[in-house]
Design brief:
Layout (H helix, E strand, L loop, with lengths): L7 E2 L3 E2 H31 L8 H30 L2 H31 L1 H14 L6 H67 L30
């Protein structure tokens, strides 16, 4: 196989290794979140989670579906990285991009609900429970409810942003490896064509000898009417 320069990420790591690692990471992380989401869905389908709003149920279904799909495509990417199969890696890169976009949209929706829906409800429940406690500790507990949820929401936003950046960079690595595999296939095809043309030239060389003109048989001395020929007198 002809040599093709290996593309890198993070300055020194080959992109094939990157696709291999992010595929395993996608299987692990996607499997964890998909299992957790499906377990929650199973609970509210059996009536164990009655306090979930319709938006929370939609978010759970979206997370479960996208994470399950991510596990399947990560498995394809892992097989493609091990076997150097460009079609599988291309499918993985394309689906990874789509999952990343859906994940960003779903994360934005979840953060919006966290700041304007679910979070406010939880703060009100926490403050209502604080009102039932000792009178001297109500203000401190109110502050703990508000400050705790604000800090938690900020942490969630930071984690989401970091995860989105990792996903976007993973898409770049996957497409870089697709480009490298395309270069390897093109180089291999060109090398094959070169070898075939050389073989054709070697085979056709003996046939060239038959195309050269042959000497006329009657031009030889025994068959010619030269000076040695003497005509008998009549």
């Amino acid at each position: 196989m002809p040599y093709v320069r290996s593309r890198k990420f993070c300055c020194c790591l080959p992109v094939r290794f990157g696709v291999f690692c992010e595929s395993i990471l996608g299987i692990a992380v996607g499997g964890f979140f998909s299992v957790a989401a499906w377990l929650q869905i199973n609970k509210f389908l059996h009536g164990q989670l009655k306090d979930l709003s319709q938006s929370d149920k939609i978010a759970l279904w979206a997370v479960a579906a996208t994470m399950t799909f991510a596990v399947v495509t990560s498995l394809l990417g892992l097989i493609g990285a091990i076997g150097r199969v460009r079609a599988l890696v291309a499918i993985y890169a394309s689906v990874l991009t789509g999952v990343t976009v859906l994940d960003i949209v779903g994360g934005i929706y979840f953060i919006y609900q966290l700041f304007h829906g679910y979070g406010d409800d939880q703060i009100q429940k926490c403050q209502a429970q604080a009102d039932q406690g000792a009178p001297g500790t109500v203000d401190a507990e109110h502050w703990a409810c508000s400050a705790g949820f604000k800090t938690g929401r900020i942490i969630v936003v930071v984690v989401y942003v970091i995860w989105w950046l990792i996903e976007i960079y993973g898409c770049v690595i996957a497409f870089e490896y697709v480009g490298q595999l395309r270069e390897e296939e093109d180089a291999s095809f060109s090398d094959r064509e070169k070898n075939q043309s050389q073989n054709i030239t070697i085979v056709t060389q003996p046939a060239a000898a038959f195309s050269q003109p042959q000497p006329y048989a009657f031009a030889a001395a025994p068959h010619s009417y030269g000076p040695e020929f003497k005509q008998e007198p009549l």
